TrEMBL record:
NCBIfam families: esterase_phb. The keyword Ubl conjugation does not apply. One of its GO terms (cellular component) is extracellular region. This is LpqC, poly. The lineage of its organism: Bacteria, Pseudomonadati, Pseudomonadota, Alphaproteobacteria, Parvularculales. The keyword Isomerase does not apply.
Amino acid sequence: MHSERGTRLTTLNSFGTDPGSLSADIYIPETVQKDGPLVVVLHGSDQSAMSYDYGSGWSTLADERGFALLFPGQRLRNNAIGSFNWFKSGDNHRGSGEALSIRHMIKQVVKDHAVDPSRVFITGLSAGGAMTSVMLATYPEVFAGGAIIAGLPYRTDSLLQALVRMKGYGSASDQTLDEFVRGASKFSGPWPTISVWHGDTDRTVDISNAGAIIRQWQKILKVGDAPTRREEVDGFPRKVWCDADGREVIEEYIIRNMGHGTPINAEGKEGLGKEGKYMLEVGISSTRHIADFWGLT
């Protein structure tokens, strides 16, 4: 556990063009493996890269497991509450805006730190979760897996539409959700795996969005509507969808009695992160379980 917030990350100053005008921080642990993985972490509104790392414990886990971290960051001049602009068409399409900035950051870190390009993963909370959906849809060839926490499916085209969908109304049809991803790039697979986390009392992003994310990816990942199995992990329900080869390609955790935020477990020797605003101590570490799902632990 690091005691001082923000002392671990260093600035990535140069990473190709930056059409979205974002900031970039990295954490490369001393234990980093050559040809190791990279995890991209997207903060939520009213958060920074540093505060999200402090709360979620990603850099502590990176020390433990030897993977590199990239933290794209929003600037207040782009969005008054520091939210990624996942709902703006200039920022949520391949080849432009914030999505392209994040792509260029990833390319730079892969090159600078001998990352295995087939082991790049992405996760985010809230607006960062919605931006994770953007990146998985627009640059699917870049990612082996993604984890969306209290986020929304791809894609939303205006602030008004975003606000309505956050409240659980006006979602696109399942067919349209599928078409959004297929139309976002020319990619034909293999597609990234998808992990979805949501609190069942979230009043900021309605829980219906978790189901919409899963439905967006089911046909693409060639799984049925019903989960392959249901189990309990750390006292919470987990649903898993496996492909024809038996590989887990979608998982969903619904956290009972949890509002809007990232589920953490800071207690005990396996503990990660620190409780705070939108960092909710519920007795399960999404950070650790997401890393497990990706095969990083």
